[in-house]
Design a protein that fits this description.
Blueprint (H helix, E strand, L loop, with lengths): L4 H6 L2 E3 H5 L9 H10 L2 E6 L5 E5 H7 L10 E6 H15 L25 H7 L3 H20 L5 H26 L4 H26 L6 H10 L4 H23 L2 H14 L1 H7 L10 H4 L9 H13 L19 H18 L4 H8 L13 H12 L7 E4 L2 H5 L3 E4 H16 L11 H14 L6 H14 L2
Parallel strand pairs: 5-6
Antiparallel strand pairs: 1-4, 2-3, 2-4
The chain binds fe (ii) ion (FE2) (2 copies).
Length: 476
């Protein structure tokens, strides 16, 4: 007999219903069922009354009833840890891309959106590696960056290539591992993703250091565009690199007090009208630059810089493949698109030990100052806070730190406001857009100013002006 009582006792077990039925009840996990039928995975049957256990071949159980795990009655059904690990491993190796493993059917996983093409061939190859191999891959990439860091005379082309490639690989690996982690309980997931978090941190440390050596120039911008293949992974790569380049530019700019003074001097004529609608409870003369940036406009500390870079890299981790995320495009489906923010936020918050900053950036990067065309968690939290505290007003627009945004003292979170701008800019200048021609940098800036500031205030006007200056300088 192939059943051994001790085997079940010492092993960790998972309820079959948790593995085979999607949590929202929308269907069964076909990929796992096929593998279990092929391998004849043992099912641990436990009698509710007597607690008697026996192992049965999956094929037999399934042959009797194609959803035996859902019926109540005298028995409960489980899979054992090692057996389940084998099935999961096989599912990843067999199918490669994360979205072709329909373990948990997400609202956006309609058939027409399930093609792995949205991620590209790079994704399929890297996602097919085992968990340990993925970490090794990230480690090798980090090593590659460190070797470049140690070189005295760097070849800019080589550095550029390495930055683009290692960022892309990190985005892919994070996407693939987090998708796996979403099927686990929170504690197990956090343990499982710890290596990923640590190695990604190390890689980002090397990558941001290489970056600070003034490699962000026209050449890198061009390489980014050339390497673009229209995939979500490439979008995340570009947003990360553009994001840290912009933060460096911003830091350089505001470290001179004359730049901030210039903004302060032009504030009343140039910006006050935009902000008075956001701070409408305040007398107009109180709407000053110090009200826009909580604690005053200032440079970003290295710690915040680093945590925000993590957020930029993984900000669209909740995206499904081949979904059109940009308004106006033929296949755009708002209800599907909104989900990517929720999925990303909860997976980073609950399934990893990534810094809190990263989950807030992910969850709040389409808020658009509460404009109805934006979406995300923050507006809902703010609304319920306002209901519970009708006399408390938000006296600041943008917070650099976590506390004022978590305590609802500010209306927006600095890195999320930065990301909104970079995200839109990237999507409209992407040369591989499916439904519309890409805009030139100048056209993109003009369009964004009209659509995202003047018509409706969505992105931040001061940060946008700094961004426009940054783009102008980088495309000189
Ligand atoms: Fe997004
Ligand atoms: Fe994005």
């Amino acid at each position: 007999m192939w059943y051994n009582q001790d085997m079940a006792e010492k092993d960790t077990v998972t309820p079959a219903s948790k593995i085979l039925t999607n949590p929202d009840g929308s269907g069964v996990n076909r990929a796992y069922i096929d593998i279990m039928l092929q391998d004849d995975t043992p099912v641990l049957c436990v009698n509710r009354g007597t607690q008697k256990k026996r192992l049965m071949p999956f094929k037999v159980m399934y042959g009797n009833n194609t959803n035996f795990w859902e019926k109540g009655g005298d028995w409960e059904y489980y899979f054992m840890g090692e057996d389940l690990a084998k099935v999961k491993e096989k599912a990843v190796t067999k199918t490669g891309a994360w979205d072709s493993i329909p373990v948990k059917k997400k609202p956006w996983e309609k058939e027409e959106h399930s093609s792995p093409q949205g991620f590209g061939d790079d994704y399929t190859a890297i996602a097919a590696l085992s968990a340990a191999e993925k970490i090794q891959y990230l480690n090798n990439n980090k090593q590659k960056l460190n070797t470049l860091l140690a070189q005295k005379n760097k070849d800019k082309e080589v550095v550029t290539e390495a930055l683009v490639d290692t960022t892309r690989d990190a985005a892919i690996i994070n996407h693939a591992v987090l998708e796996e982690a979403m099927r686990m309980g929170d504690d197990e997931a956090k343990k499982t993703t710890q290596d990923l978090v640590d190695t990604t941190h190390e890689m980002i440390k090397s990558s941001t250091q290489l970056f600070s050596e003034d490699v962000f120039n026209n050449e890198l911008m061009n390489t980014l565009v050339q390497k673009s293949n229209g995939t979500i992974v490439q979008h995340m790569t570009r947003v990360y690199l553009n994001g840290i380049a912009f933060l460096s530019y911003y830091n350089n700019l505001v470290s001179s007090s004359s730049a901030i003074n210039k903004i302060r001097v032009s504030f009343n004529t140039k910006y006050r009208n935009y902000y008075r609608t956001l701070l409408s409870h305040m007398p107009i003369e109180d709407v000053i630059l110090e009200r826009i940036f909580y604690g005053g406009m200032r440079a970003i500390t290295p710690d915040l810089f680093f945590n925000w870079a993590v957020g930029f890299l993984i900000h669209d981790i909740g995206k499904a493949s081949a979904v059109q995320y940009h308004e106006g495009e033929a296949a755009y489906d708002r209800s599907i698109v909104i989900e990517h923010v929720k999925q990303g936020y909860t997976s980073i918050m609950n399934k990893t030990n990534y810094p809190r900053e990263a989950s807030l950036i992910t969850g709040y990067h389409h808020e658009y100052y509460g404009d109805p065309e934006g979406y995300g968690y923050f507006r809902a939290y703010l609304e319920s806070y306002r209901k519970a505290n009708p006399n408390v007003k938000q006296d600041y627009c943008i917070s650099y730190e976590l506390a004022p945004i978590l305590d609802f003292h500010a209306l927006a979170y600095f890195p999320a406001k930065v990301l909104e701008i970079i995200d839109v800019y990237d999507s409209v200048t992407d040369p591989h857009r499916v439904y519309r021609k890409a805009l030139t940098p100048e056209q993109a800036i003009t369009m964004m100013r009209e659509e995202f500031i003047d018509k409706r205030l969505k992105v931040d006007p001061i940060l946008f002006d700094i961004f426009a200056a940054f783009i102008k300088e980088k495309h000189k």
